[in-house]
Design a protein that fits this description.
heterodimer, A: alpha/beta, Rossmann fold, 2 domains, 6-stranded mixed β-sheet, 4-stranded antiparallel β-sheet, 9 helices, B: mainly alpha, ABC transporter involved in vitamin B12 uptake, BtuC, 75% helix
């Protein structure tokens, strides 16, 4: 059996409540393991704790209780730089960096591997070129990043993560603001990287199509963790998302497809799941 | 480090370096006593000149003053560039911690309240500037410098508070003493000498070297705090170190030369426009252009009016605001 890359044991995370002296529990008793080279999708309604979990996995926050092991070592004991050599994070895109060229943004991935006195070698430049090529942006290296489309910008940040040479890639809503073509383009790219990919996704159909495993969160707790077939069950999804749904299997390829049907909430007769 | 720059950036840095040397030589000639090129070169190389006073004028008056001008320009511009990048706020400038108001309060107290001038005005201004930084840092302690806008707002509040105290003291002060403080606050290099060079130079050099050493971290901050952290940057520690260093440089400059507005705000913007936003060309370009700009401002301050110096802050503010509006207009026209 392959050793787990992440081991989460009884993790709890609470944020201070700004309006009182108490705190709000964002994650509650999370226990699971993630194997190398898996694509794991974190799904759940708004406020379920998806982004908070990513922030714990990249060391941004420390858990209030419980522990996280990264390749068998406690994550909190690792320096920020050592962590950055193993884990790359692609945050949600809010706006494009002003005045920076694509090549410069991708080259920022070199940072965790460089000492203050070291320059950029020919090998580093080659690495940046390769990463841009891998994400299909080789011809845009000399363009300003603020001229890119949303999909291109997302791919540029993935190129930066590739230059970072981390074995784990964490992505927060990588398909947000992208049209259908770019959504598939970005997720296909991630799937082909042969890295451990952990990403928050709102679109359950994309999650079913591209992830090996899904983690369903609700109110900071794990409701289900397993293959898409294990997790995407109509009754469970209805409980978590509060809407009736049907889950069907795509005839030619076998991917699951979730369709929420709010109208069914008022219907008297239940709809049988095709699964 | 320079090899990584684009050819255009390298060419601009060489051009600025050449202009710096030429500006220094021209500026050494400017003054009430006319000195020929031959005598200037002889004096600079330590050889005997026909008029012994020339040696004194060059080595004891003009050269230290010009070196201070270069250091002040370079220091304020680099401090401004660093602060604008770490805060991602284009309006950040070296006086953001209420440093000028603190220095002004120090100078006011020592000139007006303390009768026998127990300490010099420069030292009092330095202590006042440090007091302002301390107050801003105390106000932001819970925030841990994570939200730069909180730091900027705290700086504005501290600035108003200390200025109000100064104004209160000046209002009741004897007019001559009050005038002295007001003119000092407008900025001048007339009291500077080799001691000023020795005081300001190390602070400016340390800031420049540290900022260049953390160039990659500074560039990563241009994306976002989260992106920088995911690249292994300790954003809190980086900000704290750079804020303290910029405060120290500015306090040294204010203590020696009074308030010289707009250089720290304007020069980095102009350099960014021509040389890009990344740290290496921005810091080196700001240092060189700031030094050249300040030298010519001081030349103008010394020579525009006969027998009288114009306060530096007046010239920098006028020139700065005009240049700034021109660049802003060009950027708008280009849609940038």
């Amino acid at each position: 059996m392959t050793a787990a890359i992440y081991t989460l044991d009884q993790l709890c995370l609470a944020y201070p409540n700004s309006r009182s002296t108490g705190s709000v529990l964002a994650l509650d008793q999370i226990t699971l393991t993630i194997s190398p080279d898996e694509v794991v999708g974190i799904i759940g309604p708004n406020g379920a704790g998806k982004s908070s979990l990513l922030q714990l996995l990249n060391g941004r926050y420390a858990p209030n209780s419980g522990r996280i092991l990264l390749s068998g070592q406690p994550l909190q004991q690792q320096s920020a730089q050592a962590l950055a050599r193993q884990v790359a994070t692609v945050a949600q895109i809010s706006s494009a960096p002003q005045g920076l060229f694509c090549e410069q943004v991708a080259a920022m991935g070199l940072l965790p591997h460089k000492r203050w006195y070291e320059g950029t070698s020919a090998q580093d430049k080659q690495q940046v070129r390769l990463a841009l090529q891998q994400v299909g942006l080789a011809d845009k290296a000399q363009l300003r990043a603020d001229t890119l489309s949303g999909g291109e910008l997302q791919r540029l940040y993935i190129a930066r993560a590739l230059v970072q040479q981390a074995t784990i890639l964490l992505l927060d809503e990588p398909t947000n603001h992208l049209d259908v073509k770019y959504q598939h383009q970005v997720l296909q790219l991630l799937q082909g990287l042969n890295k451990t990919i952990i990403c928050c996704l709102h679109d359950l159909n994309l999650a079913a199509r591209y992830c090996h495993k899904l983690l369903l969160l609700e109110n900071g707790r794990v409701r289900a963790y397993g293959t898409p077939h294990d997790v995407l069950r109509p009754a469970l999804l209805q409980q978590v998302f509060g809407l009736p749904c049907v889950v069907s299997s795509q005839a030619d390829y076998g991917w699951l497809q979730v369709t929420f049907i709010p109208e069914l909430a008022h219907a008297k007769v239940g709809v049988p799941s095709p699964c | 480090m320079l090899k990584q720059l684009k050819p255009r950036q390298q060419a601009l840095l060489w051009l600025l370096s050449g202009l710096l040397v030429l500006s220094l030589l021209f500026s050494l000639q400017i003054g009430s006593v006319a000195i020929s090129w031959r005598e200037l070169l002889l004096a600079l190389t330590g050889q005997a000149v026909s008029e012994p006073l020339t040696q004194t004028i060059i080595w004891q008056i003009r050269l230290p003053r010009l070196l201070v001008a270069m250091l002040v320009g370079a220091g304020l511009a680099v401090a401004g560039a660093v602060l604008q990048n770490v805060s991602r706020n284009p309006l950040a400038d070296p006086y953001l911690f209420g440093l000028m108001a603190g220095a002004g309060l120090g100078a006011t107290i020592v000139s007006i309240v303390l009768p026998d001038q127990l300490i010099s005005m420069a030292l009092a201004a330095f202590l006042g500037a440090l007091l302002a930084v301390l107050l801003v840092f105390i106000a932001c302690m819970g925030n841990r410098l994570q939200k730069m806008e909180v730091t900027l707002l705290a700086g504005v509040a501290v600035s108003f508070m200390l200025s109000a105290i100064s104004s209160f003291i000046l209002y009741f002060a004897e007019p001559f003493a009050a005038n002295r403080v007001i003119f000092w606050m407008m900025g001048s290099l007339s009291r500077t000498d080799w001691h000023s060079v020795a005081l300001i130079a190390p602070a400016v050099m340390v800031l420049l070297v540290v900022a260049l050493a953390v160039r990659r971290q500074l560039d990563a901050l241009l994306l976002s705090d989260d992106s920088a952290r995911s690249l292994g940057v300790n954003t809190q520690r980086l900000r704290l170190v750079l804020l303290l260093l910029t405060a120290l440089v500015t306090a040294c400059i204010v203590a020696q030369c009074g308030g010289i507005a707009f250089v720290g705000l304007m020069v980095p913007h102009m350099v960014r426009y021509f040389m890009g936003v990344t740290a290496v060309p921005l810091l080196l370009g700001s240092a060189l252009f700031g030094a050249i700009f300040m030298m010519w401002v001081d030349n103008a301050a010394r020579s525009l009016l006969a027998m009288q110096e114009i306060p530096l802050g007046v010239i920098t503010s006028v020139l700065g605001s005009v240049f700034f509006l021109i660049i802003l207009r060009r950027q708008l026209q280009q849609g940038g």
